[in-house]
Write a structure and sequence with these properties.
- With about 425 residues, the chain is an alpha+beta fold.
- About 50% of the residues lie in helices and about 20% in strands.
- Strands 1, 3, 4, 5, 6, 7, 8, 9, 10, 12 and 13 form an 11-stranded mixed sheet that branches.
- Helix 8 packs antiparallel against helix 10 and helix 9 packs antiparallel against helix 12.
- The radius of gyration is 33 Å and the shape is elongated.
């Protein structure tokens, strides 16, 4: 398809001859492309934000805790309260070899943490060093708890993001500083900036203070009780296949019905992540359905308007045919007009969508760190541009076929 300056001028003259009609027709394409690009970028950003709620949490993990029984068993009535104990950790390790990490966790009601004249409410968890293999920390400063902290009952702690910002509003490395909770002082050895808000045990996300589990047993006089046991499976192990064995191992040791799913609660995070995957697939399908549907509606609008334009130019096209214009030349002219209209409107839609997505990224930037990427990728933009061009060709085919069928004698009759 050969284009020269005169051809461009003719296309521009045709499209500007009826500015309102051309604008409204182009707006349909503009809106369709904008919706497609904005939905793709917005869906990607929302997916990243949602994933951050579970960032660092092992996908093949499970949490076990005790609840009142819901079934009578071996002379014990339902509704009996019971507690897990440290021996349950060893039972799981020895009887279920598919488990890679078995980490006990203790919770407390928390309290108020003080540093200088600053204070904030914290929840306190007692953990072992291997708990970071279940919920991976994102250390901004310092380190995580280690085996020596647990073995020697060191009075050290790891604080999280919200606690750090409340107690140290000026920023800086707080490691080595001492904070007081009630009457006990703890030395900060690390600041965890992980943002896994979707799975939080023992308190509000960002406010948890982690202590060595042995120190917490001693300080809060918790004996051998364990409030929760976090486990992860070895590589290739599907947690749902060993959930019943985990429940049975704990239940039989405490004279509980092995089928009492509420009495021995096993929360399998694998199910949660499968639900998220299904949700993302559904959202992506909806995005493409709505975006492409809106884009198609714009293309139909362009085609209809070009048909009207061809009808209005019957005399002009008939005269061209009479002086020697070939069907190919008429086809080229009409399709060129359709492509120019859709390309101008479509590229405007892409630019506007990129501006909106950039504003969303700026709104989700904290401490110079971008929380989620809303911008579309390079190849997505290329695909959108190619889709616009293809849409322009398709939108011009029917009007072009109508124009090619016009004969000089038909033009004379219209005249």
């Amino acid at each position: 398809m050969r284009l020269d300056i005169d051809t461009y001028r003719e296309i521009l003259d045709t499209l500007t001859r009826n500015k309102s009609r051309s604008f409204l027709t182009g707006f349909g394409v503009f809106w369709g492309v904008f919706m497609l690009v904005a939905l793709i970028g917005g869906g990607q950003g929302m997916k990243e934000l949602l994933n951050q709620n579970f960032e660092g949490f092992a996908t093949n993990s499970a949490m076990i805790w005790a609840q009142p029984t819901t079934k009578a068993y071996k002379g014990f009535r339902k509704g009996r309260r019971w507690d897990m104990e440290y021996k349950d950790v060893q039972r799981l390790k020895s009887r279920i070899p598919e488990l890679e990490v078995v980490s006990p966790v203790l919770f407390s009601n928390g309290g108020t943490a003080y540093f200088g004249d600053r204070k904030t409410t914290v929840s306190i968890n007692g953990v072992q060093e291997d708990y970071q293999r279940v919920s991976e920390p994102k250390m901004r400063y310092g380190r995580y708890l280690n085996d020596m902290d647990v073995a020697q009952r060191r009075k050290v702690c790891v604080i999280q993001k919200k606690t750090y910002k409340d107690l140290f509003p000026g920023g800086g490395d707080p490691c080595g500083s001492f904070i007081r909770v009630d009457s006990v002082y703890y030395q900060i050895v690390g600041v965890d900036y992980s943002s896994a808000e979707g799975i939080s045990f023992g308190g509000e996300s960002g406010t948890t203070m982690l202590l060595p589990i042995t120190l917490m047993q001693q300080t809060y006089n918790m004996g051998q009780n364990v409030h929760m046991i976090a486990v992860t499976g070895k590589k290739g192990v599907v947690m749902s296949t060993i959930t019943d064995r985990i429940r049975e191992t704990i239940a039989r040791a405490h004279t509980i019905d092995p089928e009492d799913e509420q009495g021995v609660m096993v929360f399998n995070t694998e199910v949660l992540f499968q639900m998220l995957d299904s949700l993302f697939k559904g959202v992506n399908f909806l995005i493409w359905l709505v975006g492409l549907g809106t884009l198609l509606a714009g293309a139909i609008g362009v085609s209809n308007i070009m048909m009207v334009t061809v009808r209005e130019r019957t005399i002009e096209i008939g005269i061209r045919r009479a002086i020697g214009a070939t069907p190919k030349m008429i086809l080229s002219q009409i399709i060129s007009e359709s492509i120019v209209l859709t390309m101008v409107a479509g590229m405007s839609g892409i630019l506007f969508a990129v501006m909106i997505l950039q504003m969303l990224e700026l709104a989700n930037t904290e401490d110079g760190i971008l929380s989620a990427h809303f911008q579309v990728g390079f190849w997505t933009a290329i695909f959108a541009a190619l889709a616009i061009a293809a849409m322009g060709v398709l939108a011009g085919l029917a009007p072009a076929a109508r124009a090619m069928s016009i004969k000089p004698v038909d033009a004379m009759r219209d005249e």
